[in-house]
Design a protein that fits this description.
Elements: E1 14-18, H1 24-39, E2 45-49, H2 57-72, E3 76-80, H3 84-93, H4 102-105
Parallel strand pairs: 1-2, 2-3
Helix pairs in contact: 1-2
């Protein structure tokens, strides 16, 4: 099977990245990874699995920076596996429109 047959004919083309750390050095590596993925031209959306991310402002800052990096390249990130605490912190920080969680994408 050719890899182009795996993509849906319409809609965004997505890959999943597991986010485990949000330290300054990890953030730089994640941004570089998002840049590489989007620069390939066959990815529009980078889905970030944030199941293991602690609910801290450092984490929210790192995720917002990832979104900024993606948007500069014409893509976007989507969060998957957000905990209730991360969702509350995203809302509290006022970046819920920049970092939509699964519940906000569904209009909840």
């Amino acid at each position: 099977m050719r890899t182009d047959e795996l993509w849906p004919p319409d809609g965004p083309r997505s890959v999943v990245v597991r986010v485990r750390e949000t330290t300054t050095s990890a953030r730089a590596l994640l941004c570089a990874q998002v840049r590489r993925l989007l620069a390939r031209g066959d990815v529009d959306v980078v889905t970030c699995d944030v199941t293991c991310v602690p609910p801290t402002l450092t984490a929210i800052d790192a995720l917002a920076r990832l979104q900024l990096t993606a948007r500069r390249l014409g893509g976007r990130i989507r969060l998957r596996g957000t905990t209730h605490d991360i969702s509350l912190l995203i809302d509290f920080a006022g970046v819920d429109e920049v970092l939509p969680t699964a519940s906000t994408e569904l209009g909840r």
